[in-house]
Amino acid sequence: MDSSARSSKVHKEAVTLRAVLLVFTGSLLLLLLLASISLSLSSFRDYISGQLADHAQDGATALGMSLSHAIDGSDPVASSSLIDAAFDSSRYLSVQYLDTAGETVAARVEPLGSFGVPRWFMKLADIPLTEGQAEVTRGWRLLGSVRVVSDPQKAYQDLWDITLGLVAINALVGGLGLMALYLILTRTLSPLRELEAQAQAISRRDFTRRVTITSTRELNRVTRAMNQMSDDLGVLFEGQGRLIQHLRQLNNEDPVTGLASRTAFDQRLRVEVESEERAAPGGLLLFQLSDFSEFNQRFGRDTADELLASVAAVVRDFELRHAGVFAGRRMGAEIAVYMPGTGMADNVHWSNELIHAVDGLYSDAAVPLDVTVYGGVAQAGEGMTIGDLLSAADEAMRQAQAEGVTGCHSRDPSAAGHHGAETWRRMITEALESQTVGIWQQPVMRRDGKNVAFYQVFSRIRCDDDWIRAGVYVPIAERFGLMPDIDLLVIDKALEVLTQEPERQLALAVGQTSVADPSFREALIGRLEQEPSLRERLWVGVSEQSIHHHRKPALALALALKKLGVGMVVDHFGVGGVPFTYLQGMPIRALRFDHSFVHNIARHNDNRFYLEQVTAIAHGVGIQVFATGVETAGEWEALQAMGVDGAMGYHLGRPKRVDGD
């Protein structure tokens, strides 16, 4: 679980400030209520006890006087009549007339009955039953004594009624007080909720949220400070993003066309052709605009630059329609286009398609000049170097130039040993139908070189007795819209691995057509929703080209993954042509530099500086940084020195199959 997920969990478990204040105030009011009731009841109880004692004493005195003077106290019958009359006429619990020996002469006693007051309250109140006494005399002779105990029933009833009244009044006052406090706190602390939302937005690199609610002076100051900090961070991030974009343009883009510069194109092409990890079949097209120098002289440099920019737009449209294709301007009016995973027949077909599209644009702009566009395409093969491939493509281009008409020549038109597009479609479709899609994993090492951050998952398809790498068949699968099915199959296999290995974390990349396909996103999210215990150990990679060409679907996928706790990784970072500021509004856990930046990085100071700056900025906004394509110890040491969080490559670990022998 990443830091953002842990932070979100802590926030959900934490008690709000308003709740703390309400609980504290409510507890205080409850204590005051209990204290008030206790003191009031204690005072009233003492008062009632005194009244009962006086009542009993008055009754005893009156009876004593009556027995001493009004009647003959020595007459038991007369005494009993007097006591009965006194007992019935007033509220007494007992009235006793005792002789000097302590023997009862006459008495009336009645137990305390039930009268609507709870027994627990009577035990709690426990009003003392004070006994009133008086002597009975005849002249100077003592006849006995009278003992009277008042009935506390009315006292308990009054005490109970007063208690209920006190509780009701205090509860009403306390409830109204708590309600008023709730409203006051809600109004006073409302900026805090907005400030919390603003802080969470800042953690997501969203610096556009503002707090406008006013409250107390202190909170208003905090609000203004937070708004100012958000503004400053937004300006800082945008400035850093523009700086990174400017550095990328200086290092990697041609200023006129916006295509890759010659150096950047050659670096990326070298990885595709010569790298042990990435090398795969593909075709290189070189084409030129004929008589461009004459066009420049006739129409001016500005018009010539506009023409090159228009040609670049046609090339970018070609890149968009053919996944994985990348292009660059070499010099003058010469453009290079690399088509990965293609055979010679497809290379020639697509090259002619592109060249004729450019020719139509150039011919219209160059009227009345008679111009052509000529190109040459060469097939990348095993063991070739970038120099061999460029020489072969240049030789084919010169052959086309010699003919003097728009068209494309190839170095080896027979293209022996390479499959055509339809053959590839059939092979991939058969692999899907027969489920002969295997997955391999490669460790992504932490910067310490000892611990594994996660394992990157790659797919391969079975063809005859060989496993064909993703770098070979994926470009074809993208063109034919087969990647969503492949990606879903790989995801199912990856979830099976996570089930079998509970400590492992896996990362897998999804294709451009998968990102753009709503049904794929729905199926992916549906699978992940059913596996809550597994999805937090899964990373999903989306190429920067996918974000560039499918911004809204990519954002929707990123938000859905974040909601499920699944981290999203931006793959092939740096070659997608996307402004760096897209990281600000997209919930991304990590980015991974493209191979072309890592290859021989120790000898490319511009790439090294670019990676260092991006790493620092990404870390500043909570994004992890990884690299790929590490094939030498020197490359790994350079990346470690730059502070990347981890990397993968053949130097750190080779892919191994995980779903079979």
Automatic annotation (TrEMBL):
InterPro entries named among the record's database cross-references: Cyclic-di-GMP_PDE-like (IPR050706), EAL_dom (IPR001633), EAL_sf (IPR035919), GGDEF_dom (IPR000160), HAMP_dom (IPR003660), LapD_MoxY_N (IPR032244), LapD_MoxY_peri_C (IPR042461), Nucleotide_cyclase (IPR029787)
Ranges for domain EAL: 421-661
Any one Gene Ontology cellular component term annotated for this protein: membrane
Protein name in UniProt: Diguanylate cyclase/phosphodiesterase
Alphabetized Gene3D superfamilies for the sequence: 3.30.110.200, 3.30.70.270, EAL domain, HAMP domain in histidine kinase, LapD/MoxY periplasmic domain
NCBIfam families cross-referenced by the UniProt entry: GGDEF (TIGR00254)
Keywords tagged on the record: Membrane, Transmembrane, Transmembrane helix
Keyword RNA-binding: no
PROSITE patterns hit by this protein: EAL, GGDEF, HAMP
The keyword Transmembrane helix appears for this protein: yes
Domain GGDEF positions: 280-413
GO MF annotation terms: cyclic-guanylate-specific phosphodiesterase activity
Residues annotated as domain HAMP: 186-238
GO terms for biological process, alphabetical: signal transduction
Transmembrane segments: 20-41, 162-185
